[in-house]
């Protein structure tokens, strides 16, 4: 039986504690409020003193600005003149030849004489020769070689378009690129 009053006390203890907590939480706390804002009109400005002299306005004398010096006239530069390359004389002794690969066309193309009509003709000939060389390949091409052939055709197409618009230098560059790619494809 002794356990019964202890059990009751244990069961009542939390209840009593909760009841006591409610008591502490219910205390009336007065919150401090901010004082009310009273809107007072601003003070009137003091009247301006009447015994001041009138303001003096002085305009600075304007001096004429010096005229800007005219820019020095630049004389147009004369066009740069390049010497035409002279062909090398043939070797004196032709009986003994070294095994040098054909230096006929370099990777950057041929040097022109500077005459636009000559360059146009050389470019047209280069385009034709590259087209013939590309169509003359009879073997089966790998995927990479087919891409290279497509690039060659694209360069030739662009070179023809450039010739049509009068861009002879651009057409010559494109034809030279196509020719270099064809030499890689023909190996």
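Sequence proposed for the structure above (187 residues):
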């Amino acid at each position: 039986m002794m356990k019964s009053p202890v059990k009751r006390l244990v069961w009542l203890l939390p209840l009593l504690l909760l009841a006591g907590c409610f008591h502490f939480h219910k205390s009336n706390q007065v919150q401090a409020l901010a004082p009310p804002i009273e809107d007072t009109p601003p003070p009137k400005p003091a009247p301006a003193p009447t015994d001041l002299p009138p303001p003096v306005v002085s305009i600075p004398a304007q001096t004429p600005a010096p005229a800007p010096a005219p820019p020095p006239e630049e004389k147009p530069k004369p066009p740069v003149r390049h010497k035409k390359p002279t062909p090398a004389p043939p070797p004196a002794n032709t009986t003994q030849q070294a095994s040098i690969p054909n230096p006929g066309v370099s990777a950057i193309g041929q040097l022109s004489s500077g005459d636009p009509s000559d360059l146009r003709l050389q470019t047209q000939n280069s385009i034709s020769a590259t087209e013939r060389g590309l169509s003359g390949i009879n073997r089966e091409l790998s995927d990479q070689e087919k891409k290279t052939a497509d690039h060659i055709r694209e360069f030739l197409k662009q070179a023809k378009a450039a010739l049509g618009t009068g861009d002879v230098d651009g057409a010559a560059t494109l034809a030279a690129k196509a020719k270099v790619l064809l030499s890689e494809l023909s190996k």
